[in-house]
Amino acid sequence: EVQLVESGGGLVQTGESLTLSCEASGFTFSAYSMSWFRQTPGQGLEWVAEIHFDNVRTFYEESVKGRFTISRDNAKSTLYLQMNSLKTNDTGRYYCATSFRAPDCRLSGAWCYPGQGTQVTVSS
């Protein structure tokens, strides 16, 4: 069974930082690309960042470029999202996702995101 357990969210003020973690199990973590998504109030699920399985190529949604950094530790099967200079519109529930095609997994496009997410709230 694929499990992705997100942690590290919290309540912060604008300009502050948070680091999210996602512990993965149930598949060969190092062989698959990983992403972070967020569910923002009143909106659907939004893709935030992606890191390829090669641990080299990364991609970011335009509004987080230069502020967020996605990384992974394949030895620990853990994905991270370092978030700096947080803004109020970064508020949302953050989910990690895998490109592994797990059966019966909740999907956003080709991404499987089975976890509960972690809440990030940024106050002004």
Entry summary:
The chain is mainly beta and 124 residues long.
Gap from first CA to last CA: 40 Å
Secondary-structure-based class equals: mainly beta
For the biggest sheet, the summary is:
6 strands, mixed
Shape: globular
Mean pLDDT comes to 95
The total count of strands amounts to 12
The portion of residues assigned to helices is under 10%
* % residues in beta strands: over 45%
Q: What is the tally of helical segments?
A: 0
H/E series: EEEEEEEEEEEE
Notes on the structure:
- The protein is mainly β.
- The protein contains no helices and 12 strands.
- The chain has strands at residues 3-7, 10-13, 18-25, 34-39, 45-51, 58-60, 68-73, 78-83, 92-98, 107-108, 111-112, 118-123.
- Strands 2-12-9-4-5-6 form a 6-stranded mixed beta sheet, with no helix packed on it.
- The N and C termini lie far apart (40 Å).
- The model has no long low-confidence stretch (mean pLDDT 95).
Features:
12 strands; mainly beta; 50% strand; six-stranded mixed beta sheet; single chain
